[in-house]
Amino acid sequence: RPRVLSGIQPTADSFHLGNYLGALRNWVPLQDTHDAFYCVVDLHAITIPQDPAVLRRRTRVSAAQLLAIGLDPERSTLFVQSHVPEHAQLAWVMNCLTGFGEAGRMTQFKDKSGKQGADSTSVGLFTYPILQAADILLYQADAVPVGEDQRQHLELTRDLAQRFNHRYGQTFTVPAPHIIKDTAKITDLQEPTAKMSKSASSPNGIIELLETPSRSGKKIKSAVTDTGRDIVFDPENKPGIANLLTIYSALTGRTIEDLTGAYDGKGYGDLKKDLAAVVVDFVTPIQERTKTYLDDPAQLDKVLAAGAEKAREVSAATLATVYDRIGFLAGK
Ligand code: TYM
């Protein structure tokens, strides 16, 4: 079976709808068609300062949410990145294969570091995409289900795989991004041309899976739209309405045409009110299941430990080959 690998950072107390619609919902069906590896990338999280207790809590909350949306440890391998030491080890090798200028061209780094001075930006943030490449290449992933914002990191990953293969002989599968176009970029409810993001300027722009339904409802009702009144799908001129329709369509399975037909002659308020109800129906069972997993942290930790063990079977084999190809002496 072809392989997939993807990861998500434990940097918030809840995932948001952008994470879910852009990436996570694709992880679930891939469990049945692919050999699937999914990780909570805590090594990536510390590229910006983290409070230890908060990081620990968020790592468990992240794993619990992944189980709650339908990841099944029997059908996929769910693990925490720091439990598998090969990620950091391969990242070092990849660091030594990446040009300084090449890493400097990563737009996410430029966006994130631009907000701070050079001395408060960590070197880890700079090499972040190289660690991501290691995550993917360790598992010989054929495809990587992510949102649009990860495309450039995937390009770097492909370049590094090809570079290594060219220099040391065929070693890595060159992975392809697996991006679902319709929901590849869910936008901020307050700023509908920017992507919905944990680091958004206003918390009202993001819908969190674990926030109270009344809070989500308020955010949807106050979503920025436009001065028109027609409910049509026009991302260029009506990005707010287009985003609401995209979310509505993805959560219900109804096509955009069906929705614009159904709301013909109705107002923005009707659309928002109905979407708020759709979101409540969607998040309520996820919240209940997440809580159940969090109520038994020992069991959750056991699931993650078993996942790490399965992951290591693959990652250790890849790293051993890499070390050998590079010319490191066999240590035993
Ligand atoms: P992260 O944790 O920022 O986001 C997790 C996933 O959510 C997607 N996403 C979105 N999709 C659509 N619309 C949005 N507004 C939106 N916001 C976030 C992201 O594209 C991502 O797929 N670098 C990765 C984590 C990572 C990784 C990996 C991913 C580390 N190693 C290996 C794939 C493979 C990241 O920061 O994701």
From TrEMBL:
Output the InterPro entries linked to this UniProt entry: aa-tRNA-synth_I_CS, aa-tRNA-synth_Ic, Rossmann-like_a/b/a_fold, Trp-tRNA-ligase, Trp-tRNA-ligase_bac-type, Trp-tRNA_synthetase
Superkingdom assignment: Bacteria
The terms under GO molecular function for this entry are: ATP binding; tryptophan-tRNA ligase activity
Per the record, its GO cellular-component terms are:
cytosol
Which residues bind L-tryptophan per the record? 135
Question: What chemistry does it catalyse, as a reaction equation?
Answer: tRNA(Trp) + L-tryptophan + ATP = L-tryptophyl-tRNA(Trp) + AMP + diphosphate + H(+)
In its keyword annotation, does this UniProt entry include Cytoplasm? Answer: yes
Q: Where is this motif: 'KMSKS' region?
A: 195-199
Q: Which residues bind ATP?
A: 9-11, 18-19, 147-149, 186, 195-199
Example of a GO biological process term: tryptophanyl-tRNA aminoacylation
State the UniProt keywords alphabetically.
Aminoacyl-tRNA synthetase, ATP-binding, Cytoplasm, Ligase, Nucleotide-binding, Protein biosynthesis
Q: Does the keyword Transmembrane helix apply?
A: no
Q: How does it assemble?
A: Homodimer.
- So what family is this one in? Belongs to the class-I aminoacyl-tRNA synthetase family.
Spell out the NCBIfam families in the cross-references: trpS (TIGR00233)
Q: PANTHER family, alphabetically?
A: TRYPTOPHAN--TRNA LIGASE, MITOCHONDRIAL
Q: What function does the entry list?
A: Catalyzes the attachment of tryptophan to tRNA(Trp).
Q: What HAMAP family does its record include?
A: Trp_tRNA_synth_B
Under which name does UniProt file this protein?
Answer: Tryptophan--tRNA ligase
Species: Catenuloplanes niger
Give the taxonomic lineage as stored in the record.
Answer: Bacteria, Bacillati, Actinomycetota, Actinomycetes, Micromonosporales
Q: Which gene encodes it?
A: trpS
